[in-house]
Amino acid sequence: MKANESTMSEILKPAVIIGALGYFVDVYDLILFSIVRRASLLDLGVPDGRILEQGILLLNWQMAGMLVGGIIFGILGDRLGRVVLLFGSILLYSVANIANGCVHSVEAYAVWRFIAGVGLAGELGGGITLVSEVLSKEARGYGTMVVATVGVFGAVVGGLVAGLVPWRDAYFVGGGLGLLLLVLRMSVAESGMFKQLRASPGPAARGDFLSLFKQWSRFLKYFRCILIGLPLWFVLGILVSFSPEFAAALKIRGEVNVAHAVAFAYLGITFGGFASGFFSQQLRSRKKIIFAFILFTLAAMVAYLLAAGASSATLYLIIHFLGFGVGYWTVFVTVAAEQFGTNIRATVATTVPNFIRGSVVPLTLAFNYLKSYKMGAEPVGVVISAAIVGTICILTALWALRGLEETYGKELDYIEPI
């Protein structure tokens, strides 16, 4: 009992609690655009026939911002500290999301989605890095499990809020929650590992992003860390975000609403995040759990794309299982953080999830191109194009996972040679 109480008290450190709340607000704001996409664009005067096209454009601007922000905040996290990273990130995306609620043109919307993306980029990687460094190697998997379980529930709350208030007010709520969290963050202390590194007189370079590309073995490891997350953003960026379009193509009985689809998906991710984190600790393996969850995702994808004629309730259930399958998201970011030394850990942990989020740009472009590509007289359509893109994502993720080392219980207090 005492051992369990000791583990629990370690897990419930301020860094874990505030990290979980930060990820909660991050996910709320990150997914909000997908929830209010149709309502906001229609309100801005976009014709119904161009909603999908403009929605993809704005989503890509947001994800492009996350690519840029991932690099900026990752470098800041290794040079100035994990806490500085988290403060800067949440301040930027909170202000940007309040501004999103004030836009009156698609052009302004695109600018502020980009800026919001830059700010959103730092939250998860910075939080996971801090949690991984303040907890013992035996407990850090449970810590990241708490971050995942609490954090992704932000999307469920986002779906509920978006269904109760106008789209502009939903953005104001997200920005307000971020500013409130900024005050709570005052109590979070810096990582001891980073303090030791900063005080060290040695020559280790901190936050050297380009060092990830200077050695083939290091680059390949970094690239594999990114690729194992591909199924997640295929599921969220295509299957869930455009679920009404899939419902029409599959002739689903009953209305399919994006807000409900996102809520069901993220409820699944909440359970999947808890399960993947818990069982990775119980089995003492990150890789086995990620492998199992990728296969589960594949099965759910097949069920989704073969659901022709099903009811909307059945499709929502499948979307829930899709969410559970990609619930290995935080374990995946933890693996990335555990692969590299303290001097570039925040850079890796922040850029990896944002590069994979940014993969939504080529994924949606490929999906959009294939669905209109004609094979004979008829275009391929959304179902077949999604099957092609999704299969490539699954196979690529499995290949990437196979080449990574197992990191459960790995000692993290070391410096990466530059």
What is the molecular shape?
globular
Low-confidence stretches: none
Q: How many strands?
A: 2
CATH fold category name: Growth Hormone, Chain: A
Secondary structural class: mainly alpha
What is the gyration radius calculated from CA atoms? 20 Å
What is the H/E string?
HHHHHHHHHHHHHHHHHHEEH
> Could you say what the CATH architecture is?
Up-down Bundle
User: Percent range for helical residues?
Assistant: over 70%
State the end-to-end distance.
Answer: 44 Å
Q: Could you give a short description of this structure?
A:
A two-stranded antiparallel ribbon has the order 1-2. The radius of gyration is 20 Å and the shape is globular. The mean pLDDT is 87.
What do you see in this structure?
- This protein has 418 residues and is an all-alpha fold.
- The chain has one domain: MFS general substrate transporter like domains (Growth Hormone, Chain: A, Up-down Bundle).
- 75% of the residues lie in helices and 1% in strands.
- It is built from 19 helices and two strands.
- It has a two-stranded antiparallel ribbon.
- Strand 1 and strand 2 form a beta hairpin.
- Helix 6 crosses helix 16 and helix 18 runs antiparallel to helix 19.
- The longest helix has 30 residues.
- It is globular and about 65 Å long.
- The protein starts with a helix and ends in a 16-residue tail after the last helix.
- The mean pLDDT is 87.
